[in-house]
Amino acid sequence: MVSWSDGSDSSEHTREYMSSDSDDGTIKVPASTEDSDFEGPETDMYVLCHGHGKAAERRVAFEGIHTGRRFLCCAEKEGKNCGIVEWIDPSWPNTLENALSKLWSMYEQTKIDRTEECLMHSFAIHDLTQEKKKLQAAYEKLVEDVNALMDAHEQRAVIQRKDAETTKLQEKYDTVKNIAVAQAIVIRNMKLKLAEERKNLQIHIDELKKTVEESNVKLEGIKAIING
Q1: pTM for this structure?
Q2: 91: pLDDT strictly greater than 70
Q3: Residue 128 exposure: Cα atoms within 13 Å on the Cβ side
Q4: What is the three-class DSSP state of 148?
Q5: 195 and 187 in contact (C-beta within 8 Å)?
Q6: Tens digits of per-residue pLDDT, 105-130?
């Protein structure tokens, strides 16, 4: 145990030492709160830590049943400390200690409840995040499907326009084809009629030739008679 020396009568204060509560010898000093009336190194009583050669530090406890009690502790910030030098204030009455114990229990339970509440909120946020991701994925899929549907509709409209144009071209082709067929029929009929008229004309020509020949024969006979 580390020895301490001070320049005053220690019987005026409640001297308590703490043993090491860890494997490396570091002693846990009670939690404290800031108090401008009792802070900094203790210079009035000259309480020194022989192990570190530093003046003890003034603190006000803020932990459990010791809440509000002033004490001196080792001022070493790093490494092994020497535990509590001594309590300046005596222990609180049992009723106050019980009240402080209950208050700290309520505080700890509140911390636990808040931790659990934060955890539940975290789970809820996680669930909402996952639901948001699902909704986002569903929305993106819906947008993709709508775009695909619009593309299909546009392609169908293009095909319908092409079909309409093809139908019109087919109608025009059929019309031209029918006209060509009609013209071919007319030409064929005209050829047949022309051939028939040509045949009739040839018959008429042959008849005229025959008449001319007969007339020539008759003329030669008349000439013979006249000359004879």
Answers
A1: 0.46
A2: yes
A3: 6
A4: helix
A5: no
A6: 999 999 999 999 888 888 888 888 88
Give the residue from 97, 66, 81 showing the smallest Cα distance to 29: 81
109-113, long-range: CB < 8 A, 24+ apart: none
Q: How far is CA 100 from the centre of its chain?
A: 51
Q: Say how far apart CA 104 and CA 100 lie, in whole Å.
A: 6
Give every CB contact of residue 101 below 8 A, 6+ residues apart in sequence.
Answer: 64, 65
Query: CA Rg, the chain, in Å?
Result: 65
Q: How many CB atoms lie within 10 A of CB 81?
A: 22
More confident call, 16 vs 198: 198
Paired tokens of 152: 């299909």
Quick one: tokens of 59?
Answer: 């603190």
Using alpha carbons only, give the angle 171, 174, 176 rounded to the nearest 5 degrees: 110
Which residues neighbour 49 within 8 Å (Cβ) at sequence distance 6 or greater? 2, 4, 55, 56, 74, 75, 76, 82, 85
Answer whether residue 153 shows pLDDT above 70. yes
